[in-house]
User: Which sequence fits this backbone?
């Protein structure tokens, strides 16, 4: 469990919950097939009347999503929602979340927490949900700011980019061709990180000998990501490194590299789940990568949703609310709430983390 320094002593219980809730969420999504799924996870009310929160992740069947939603469910119970549930598409395509939002509007759900697959495509549906009285919490991947009340962001977006450019530069010795293997082409979060990476590569003299030669999209689909990694190596024989700012992409790319002639020769970094990346760190395919604690993202999103629906905050700059054992959070400019710092994982520390 990763800790925010100021909250260190207080996060133990959340940490022990992560593994349990992640397993439960995995079990739920494993039962789903077809193009849409839902899981009702009603929990007893702790004073929230009949208030309901529904999480709509980018997609189900993504281990990252499962960890986020484990934290979200725990947060929902502690914050006092009468029930929490997860619904969402199996693919992270731009408009795939619209029908789920509409169903929540019909159901009179108090809080819709959404990781947007596209910043614009969800806006009309979210506007209708808000007209019907729902509060909208974006988490992980933002909507256009005027389509939601608040955005729970894992880490300052620019810092997510900077850590990855630094890691790839270190791993390729500061020069050579690199590529980015991202999630979907519309993903708000990945696109913002990539924008900052490109700016940094272009403006920081330390990176003047690094050349970004390709950006490809694995759509947060394991098979497509694996094939894109393979394609990159064929198209760019001089490639020295790959940044994959998505847990699905980095795991698939690591799997491809680990049994190829490029293992240990072509560097791979980005954002990964320690539990998925552990074998590839141990076998020498990957040296270092980064992430934050996904459970904390869902946990804070639930408390933000409760504060909004109770009228305690509006999402305005300077608003504060208490996120359970993670303590007080402040809303920054643009309705932004930052959850925690990124952590870098490598062979020395990876066994300390279980998510
Ligand atoms: C994938 C998703 C998610 C992102 C992580 C890092 O699981 O694209 O949105 O935050 O990677």
Assistant:
């Amino acid at each position: 469990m990763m800790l925010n320094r100021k909250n260190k002593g207080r996060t133990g219980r959340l940490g022990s919950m992560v593994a349990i809730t992640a397993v439960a969420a995995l079990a739920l999504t494993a039962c789903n097939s077809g193009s849409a799924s839902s899981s009702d996870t009603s929990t007893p009310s702790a004073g929230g009347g009949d208030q309901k929160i529904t999480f709509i992740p980018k997609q189900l069947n993504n281990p990252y999503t499962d960890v986020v939603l484990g934290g979200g469910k725990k947060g929902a119970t502690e914050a006092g929602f009468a029930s929490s549930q997860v619904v969402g598409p199996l693919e992270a395509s731009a408009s795939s979340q619209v029908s789920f939002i509409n169903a929540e509007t019909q159901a009179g759900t108090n809080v819709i927490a959404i990781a947007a697959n596209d910043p614009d495509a969800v806006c009309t549906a979210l506007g209708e949900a808000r007209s019907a009285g729902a509060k909208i919490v974006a988490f992980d991947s933002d909507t256009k700011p005027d389509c939601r009340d608040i955005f729970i962001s894992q880490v300052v977006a620019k810092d997510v980019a900077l850590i990855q450019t630094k890691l790839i530069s270190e791993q390729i010795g500061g020069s050579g061709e690199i590529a980015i293997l991202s999630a979907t082409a519309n993903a708000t979060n990945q696109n913002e990180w990539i924008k900052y990476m490109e700016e940094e590569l272009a403006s920081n003299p330390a990176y003047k000998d690094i050349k970004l030669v390709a950006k490809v999209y694995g759509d947060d689909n394991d098979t497509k990501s694996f094939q894109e990694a393979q394609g990159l190596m064929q198209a760019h024989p001089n490639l020295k490194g790959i940044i994959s700012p998505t847990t699905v992409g980095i795991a698939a790319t690591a799997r491809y590299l680990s049994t190829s002639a490029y293992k240990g020769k072509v560097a791979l970094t980005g954002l990964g789940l320690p539990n998925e990346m552990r074998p590839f760190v141990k076998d020498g395919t990957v040296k270092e990568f980064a992430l934050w604690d996904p459970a904390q993202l869902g946990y804070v999103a639930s408390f933000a949703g409760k504060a909004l629906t109770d009228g305690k905050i509006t999402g305005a700059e300077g608003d504060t609310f208490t996120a359970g054992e993670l303590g007080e959070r402040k809303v920054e400019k643009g309705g932004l709430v930052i959850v925690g710092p990124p952590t870098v994982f490598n062979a020395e520390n990876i066994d300390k983390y279980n998510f």
In short: Residues 58, 62, 64, 115, 140-141, 183, 189, 220, 246-248, 271 surround alpha-L-rhamnopyranose (CB under 6 Å).
